[in-house]
Amino acid sequence: MSDSHHGVTVGGAADEKPSIELPDGGPPAGLQSLDLTVGDGAEVPARATVTVHYVGVSWTNGGAEFDASWDRGETISFGLNQVISGWTEGIPGMKVGGRRLLIIPPDMGYGASSPTPAIAPNDTLVFVVDLVDVR
Fold this sequence. Notes:
Blueprint: E1 2-5, E2 8-11, E3 19-21, E4 32-37, E5 49-58, E6 64-68, H1 69-72, E7 76-79, H2 85-90, E8 99-104, E9 125-134
Antiparallel strand pairs: 1-2, 2-3, 4-8, 5-6, 5-7, 5-9, 8-9
């Protein structure tokens, strides 16, 4: 099953690593936070600590994956105050069991100072996030 949002196509079952395909052309403006699956568990408040599975791809590099917790075989937990602002603002309101697409503009990502060559300077980041737990 796959759905297209802002031209971004996400495939894969709920309990497996999603696939992400980007459209041709430029990214949408501003932060896009779109529920692909609405969870039925606890809702994430601002500044919560979340446990997630995620895949991240680079818009500039044609959808090349730069990171995925799925590939490490384990979820990751972090405080929403410890991450890029696209996550800080894009994750609250999710519910446990949900899957959300985040399209994060450069000013809410890494801007000009990318932490890895897999992310271009001033890149738009695309994540599919599965919320496993919140506390």
